[in-house]
Amino acid sequence: MNQAANNDWVARSLASVWHPCTQMQHHESLPLVALSHGKGAWLFDHEGRRYLDGVSSWWVNLFGHANPRINAALKDQLDRLEHAMLAGFTHEPVVQLSERLAAKTGHALGHCFYASDGASAVEIALKMSFHYWRNTGCDAKREFVCLSGSYHGETVGALGVTDVPIFTEAYGSLYRRAHVVPSPAAVGEDEALRRMRVLLEQSASQIAAVIVEPLVQCAVGIAMYDPAYLTQLRALCDEFSVHLVADEIAVGCGRTGSFFACEQAGIWPDFLCLSKGISGGYLPLSLVMTTDTVYRAFYHPDIARGFLHSHSYTGNPLACRAALATLDIFDQDDVIVKNRERAQKLGDALARVARHPAVSNVRQRGMICAFDVKPVASAGFSRRFFAEALQQELLLRPIGTTVYWMPPYVLTDEEIASLGDKTVAVLEKVAA
Ligand SMILES: *Cc1c(COP(=O)(O)O)cnc(C)c1O
Prior knowledge:
By secondary structure, the chain is α/β, with parallel strands linked by helices. Helix content is 40%, strand content 16%.
């Protein structure tokens, strides 16, 4: 627990670890924090400094670090079965998880396919949709539609349905680009639906699926829209025989106020992708839930009509067990209801931040809060804010000039108030 240890880990990391989503040269001035441990909403470094995890460690942690209940479940699972292949074998955690998630959709989405990360879940949903149409004699339906500002992951297939230039630009000639239709967050619900209808009227016979991030487009900068858009998009997809893929990787697991964001629109998609929070932020786990109709189209004596996709760690028992412990906490602690109070308190703290003259476009949906900042200078704002927040014992990582809170669901009233106060203190340093 000292500065020498801290500096040592930082230097060795910079020499050997290529960090994600980072221009490594920025670390010549940007702090790299070497963590020693985590507890609840806090991360601790080797010097004994602590940081309130205001972004749930990239939107994955729901019930705090080193959560005793998830830890206990994992320790128990470790002594039973750490991993086995899921082709030809099954195990309790994967069966229970599939059943419990299916039940949460009223069995509208009764079949679960597993992978390890969000981008892979998106790839699976796209491939399943494409292959469904092929299996049902609609070979022409091969194209996809995404919304402007969409983010669905960074593997080559997922980039094709992603519309955030910083992630796609360098790879434009590497992937097949989907149709991009204006997002309701950009042009309003009515115009967005009108534009979607125009495209589907022209091209539905070539379109397999529309993919959306329900209610909040997170990675582009926490862009929010109304549930009514999803309700009407579902109707449009039905009218034109096009699949609807709901990428709930960021917005699922209670983040927007309901367990699935789609619930707020009263709809189910044909494919629902989950990852991030589903394992409580413990282990890489993703899954795609789909309907009996889709499942049946692959069920056939011919192996080539099956869905032959696989990943080595598909349905990993430890990850599934972490997910089951996470679902237990949702049930035992009545989390969706309790989060309404917590969201209210976050809203109160946000209202205090909103009084700062550099703050605009204040927005909230459930456990996601965001606002835009007029910076002293926009270049490097995000990094300056991040560094200044660390000084305040706060982990926040703005997207461009959008600052957001996406905290774990364990913050006390005091921690929420302090999140607000410290955010204001950071703004005093870096905002105009
Ligand atoms: C994070 C995210 C992904 C990609 O998940 P990874 O696990 O990072 O591959 C896909 N879609 C959305 C909406 C996300 O937020």
